[in-house]
Each structure stands twice: as C-alpha cells, then as structure tokens.
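Worked example

This section walks through a single chain of length 67. The input is the sequence exactly as stored; nothing has been trimmed or padded.
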Amino acid sequence: MDEDDEDDDDDEDFTEEAVETFPAGHEVAVTIAEDVYPNAIDYFMGNTIDSDIDLDEDDDEDEEMEG
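Given that input, the structure is written out below as tokens.
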C-alpha cells in the first residue's frame, strides 16, 4: 500500500503550469502545420478556401475526351 501513496505524490509534482519545456511550442507547431498542409484548419472547419485550381475545367476536359 505504501507504493500507491508514493505514486500519488509523484503526480502532484508535475503539473502543466510547473513544467513548460518550450514556451513557443504552440507557435512552432502551427507554423510547421501550415508549411505541411496550408489552410488545414480552415479545411477542417469547413470554411471556404480560395484556390487557384478550377475544378469545373477538369470536368469539361473529361467530357471532351469521352465523346
């Protein structure tokens, strides 16, 4: 039973407020995410994303090739 009491003490020593290993970590993570997948958050949230790609043109080309 003494081991359980020791484990509880260890958990209390490390809180999120007490340990901050890299203060700018959130900003770095967002920057990397934007480099890997631009507008990922907007896509996930369902926001309209302006794109240089016009998907309607691709449909017209496919129809011309078939007929």
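What to look for: Residues 2-13 form the longest helix (12 residues).
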